[in-house]
């Protein structure tokens, strides 16, 4: 990486709130001093290799991350592969060839994208995994939400409403490490009730590429093989929850069988207002994008950052920053999602 004459140095203290998980320590307010360089050549460039822009959530991430990087006076190059592993690798390789100073990646396939990390490191470029962990590679930093906690929040909210009964679990994409973490959190929370015989998991299936159409098919199958005798549905995100709810609607059961999701997508929040979805888990992605941007600037300048939290990705203990998710239902929509400006009150409660 080439850095030329420093003309301006701006020191910014970045406070990071990190959730405590079972296997990691809590890190609070590390001192991260961020050097913003303005040079007589091109500014630093950050590459952002995204899995997809087919979901509302990731469109928001793209816009927020781009704004955050540009606010520091840096350039950003963004590409989305929309679920195509080979394309994501090719896009990242092109960014590396174009001379990016650091790569931020949202992997589609947690294992396949290890090849991207190897290529970046071979070119002397550090890599941050954004929200999703890359497996079996020496990642420089992983910044996400506590995804096990997301699953726990879903299960805990559902058990308050349905303490006993037949549960369906509609999982996420098996290639996404977050889907596995979320499922672990769900089943960790449910296990005592399962052991007591209060809750029975009568259907459990992954959903390829988080595709709502596949989630619809899974829910329809679960209803058919169980003769509609289902008491609760936990879906891995709001898109799969939407597919499941469509299948319930076809049987006249939307709003009768409660459904949990995550991501706080607008359609899901509106379903919560309408009563067809019971809850979602809100992840303040503006905090995520801003903190990844600040840390990208820091690492791109070869400055060290040593969080005490780490996550094992099958290759090494990856330094990690984990943010706290928030359970949201009809009672706290205004105090969370709307208060943060994630969705406006008009968008949530309006007719348009």
């Amino acid at each position: 990486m080439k850095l030329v004459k420093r003309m301006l140095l701006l020191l910014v203290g970045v406070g990071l709130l990190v959730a405590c998980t079972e296997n990691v320590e809590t890190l609070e307010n590390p001192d991260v001093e961020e050097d913003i360089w303005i040079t007589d050549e091109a500014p630093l460039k950050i590459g952002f290799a995204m899995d997809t822009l087919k979901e509302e959530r990731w469109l928001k991430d793209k816009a927020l991350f781009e704004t955050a990087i540009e606010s520091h006076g840096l350039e950003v190059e963004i590409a989305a592969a929309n679920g195509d592993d080979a394309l994501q690798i090719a896009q990242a390789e092109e960014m590396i060839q174009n001379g990016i100073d650091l790569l931020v990646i949202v992997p589609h396939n947690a294992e396949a994208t290890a090849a991207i990390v190897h290529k970046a490191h071979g070119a002397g470029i550090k890599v941050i995994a954004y929200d999703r962990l890359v497996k079996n590679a020496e990642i420089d930093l992983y910044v996400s939400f506590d995804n096990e906690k997301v699953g726990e929040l879903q299960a805990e909210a559902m058990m308050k409403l349905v303490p006993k009964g037949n549960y369906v679990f509609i999982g996420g994409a098996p290639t996404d490490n977050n889907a596995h973490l979320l499922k672990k959190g769900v089943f960790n929370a449910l296990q005592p009730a399962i052991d007591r015989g209060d809750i029975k998991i009568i259907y459990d299936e992954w959903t390829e590429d988080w595709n709502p159409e596949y989630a619809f098919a899974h829910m329809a199958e679960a209803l058919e093989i169980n003769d509609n005798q289902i008491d609760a549905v936990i879906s891995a995100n709001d898109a799969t929850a939407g597919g499941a709810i469509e299948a319930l609607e076809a049987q006249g059961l939307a709003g009768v069988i409660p459904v949990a999701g995550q991501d706080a997508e607008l359609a899901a929040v509106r379903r919560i207002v309408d009563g067809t979805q019971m809850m979602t888990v809100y992840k303040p992605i503006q905090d995520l994008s801003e903190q990844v941007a600040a840390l990208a600037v820091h690492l791109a300048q070869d400055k060290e950052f040593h969080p005490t939290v780490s996550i094992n990705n099958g290759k090494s203990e990856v330094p990690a920053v984990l943010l706290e998710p928030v359970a949201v239902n009809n009672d706290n929509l205004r105090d969370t999602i709307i208060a943060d400006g994630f969705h406006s009150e008009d968008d949530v409660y309006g007719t348009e």
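The CA atoms of residues 17 and 28 lie 5 Å apart. The chain is about 40% helix and 15% strand.
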